[in-house]
Amino acid sequence: MKVLILNGSPRVNGNTSIAVNELVKTFEKEGIATEVCHIGNKDIRGCIACGKCSAQGRCVFDDAVNEIAAKFEQADGLVVASPVYYASANATLIACLDRLFYSSHFDKTMKVGASVVVARRGGCSSTFDELNKYFTISGMPVASSTYWNSVHGREAGEAEFDAEGMLTMRSLARNMSFLMKSIALGKEKYGLPDGEPWQPTHFIRDDLK
Q1: Which segments of the protein form a coiled coil according to its record (predicted)?
Q2: Which residues form the domain of 70?
Q3: Helix axes 124-136 and 91-103, enclosed angle (nearest 10)
């Protein structure tokens, strides 16, 4: 089994990397392979709503997003980690996730998702909620921990001293490992849940025109 981890920090060895490394060590103990993609310092543009991906099955901009999509399709779980900027995730990461989830058409049902947020002080909860929405619109169960998945630190290396944050990361990795293994067993016995054709609706009423 394998987990793909997206590190959205522009700092290669910053506090977000400390949180990610704690996850990786625990996943390894649980027998789960990991691959970390550091995208926070990449040149990734946002979606321009061209719609080409509906025909191509991939984004028209052939950059790191398409490379990540291929890895995501083969993974059993996805962890998205981000520093907190203005109570939000890194803009590069959001641009990546918008295009990744919209342009890739493979079935994401029952792939396990988890988000990790790192801040000096505040904004963790809003960023945590923001990132989890990518999973919950895609049929992906969200792994939980003993606290919301946040780690605190300002200067590089300070996250190591957030004892509760490190515990939260280890608990998250263990819980996510158990969930992925359980889902794999469930798929063998029961298969995936039945689906229905998409029925897009909106709130514009014809009788009011």
Answers
A1: none
A2: 2-208
A3: 10
Query: Cβ atoms within 10 A of the Cβ of 1, count?
Result: 16
Q: Calculate the CA 142 to chain-centre distance.
A: 10
50 Cβ neighbours under 8 A, 6+ residues apart: 60
Nearest to 69 by CA among 56, 51, 81: 56
Reply yes or no on whether the pLDDT at 200 is more than 90.
Answer: no
Name 152's Cβ contacts closer than 8 Å, sequence gap at least 6. 118, 119, 120, 121, 124, 158, 159, 162, 165
Which CATH number belongs to the domain containing residue 131 in this structure?
3.40.50.360
- pLDDT tens sequence across 105-143: 999 999 999 999 999 999 999 999 999 999 999 999 999
pLDDT digits 0-9 by tens, 15-66: 999 999 999 999 999 999 999 999 999 999 999 999 999 999 999 999 999 9
The reported pTM is 0.94
